[in-house]
Amino acid sequence: MRTDLFVDGTWSAGSAGSFDVLDPSSAARIAAVARAGLDDLDRAITAAHTAQPLWAATAPRERSELLRRAFEGMIARRDEIAALIVREMGKSQADALAEVTYAAEFLRWFAEEAVRIDGELRVAPSGANRILTFRRPVGVALLLTPWNFPAAMATRKIGPALAAGCTVVLKPAEDTPLTALLLAEIFANAGIPDGVVNVLTTDQPGELVTAALADPRVRKLSFTGSTQVGRVLLGQAAAHVVNCSMELGGNAPFLVLDDADVDAAVAGAMLAKMRNYGQACTAANRFIVDSSVVSEFTSKLVDAMASVPSAPLVNSRAVDGVAGRVDSSGGRVLLGGKRESGPGFHYPPTVVTDVPYDSVLAREEVFGPVATILTVPDADAAVALANSTEMGLVAYVYTQDLGRGLRISERLEAGMVGLNRGLVSDPAAPFGGVKESGLGREGGYEGIQEYLETMYVATSW
Ligand code: NAD
């Protein structure tokens, strides 16, 4: 198991000591991992900054093939990566295997995009001159990732950054640094040159990230995490006008309209709610259900939730956060709702109904296995309630009338909609939010654009 920093192609201890990583299912210590200090940060930025022009000058086909090899390296070690994710993050093995496949697919997708970076030739309206556009890499990118998808959140950033010709310094979340270090090994084994991918681990991100954003050699910040931290980082990025992509918090509404196929809605709800045991930014946070179908939907959802085995949350703070919101929700608990004793950080699948619209469960992202049900009289009220939040990442809509579903989708303030579908994540799709859920898109054709800027040459001939 790799526990050291990965800088400029070599492994080294952290200059600020080490920190413990715990197994969420037992609270036992798994490993002591290097804590990067400011001199490690300087080494990493220097390595990335030195490697960047050389990497940007490699043939697109070569960057593509190296990314493709990294994809193959991940697939070859799929079981090992999944086992490590289970150990440090606590998700089920099935969820972990699905994550590794999803994560690897970002490398394959962006390997295919690396050879499609192009420019344009335009004729000025006067006819007197020509406008030539080029797409160029932004430069050194600082990548900050959360703990809930330790592999996929990293590859969703590293894939497009490398395809574009950027070099990176990745700082994974303190709960899940081991997966990122294993990925560094896979990139190195794939032949990615020294300095192109650097990984710094720490349990004290504030100081390190503040220093990184104060360094003018860092030209890009891609952050996935909470809106609260994202806001602070946007402020810090302003000092050197750093290009920012922000994938922030969600509070996804899941609309079940009067003409929904309730069984299909329950199946979609289970996917949208319980993938990753509720610890996803795309997790359905508010089930907004038409009063004509709410009793059928609720009883079927309770049955489905009751069949899910209890699993750990990532840490004890997460359990406190979920339990605190359920206890003060003002709703009626139909299933679960009580902390579980024993080692590790467990909380059971929970369903709360008759929840007031202004309940903490409806206002805040619960990030756990809690289904909150709000009842509405009609579709207009459902849309109004769905939009009544500062977040706008994803929304889900269930109706058997596709035209109606599309019209409702257009009215939802969200970056993504799952229409009769409980899963929106796809490496080929533009993932991202509106309002305080973020800036920019990851994946799809859009994902690589976040790491490119446009330059143009004016000329005449
Ligand atoms: P978090 O904001 O606490 O941490 C995210 C990252 O920021 C971690 O790497 C952490 O070490 C770092 N960080 C924390 N405090 C920092 C500081 N003061 N300065 C600099 N860096 C700091 O979020 P989390 O708890 O790890 O993740 C959960 C949140 O992430 C949820 O809100 C979830 O919705 C969001 N999320 C969003 C997406 C998306 O794509 N929109 C995906 C996954 C998770």
UniProtKB/TrEMBL annotation:
GO terms for biological process: gamma-aminobutyric acid catabolic process. It comes from the Bacteria. Pfam families: Aldedh. InterPro entries: Ald_DH/histidinol_DH, Ald_DH_C, Ald_DH_CS_GLU, Ald_DH_N, Aldehyde_DH_dom, Aldehyde_DH_Superfamily. Keywords: Oxidoreductase. The active site is at E247. GO terms for molecular function: succinate-semialdehyde dehydrogenase (NAD+) activity. Residues 11-456 form the Aldehyde dehydrogenase domain. Belongs to the aldehyde dehydrogenase family. This is Succinate-semialdehyde dehydrogenase/glutarate-semialdehyde dehydrogenase. It comes from Actinocrispum wychmicini. The lineage of its organism: Bacteria, Bacillati, Actinomycetota, Actinomycetes, Pseudonocardiales.
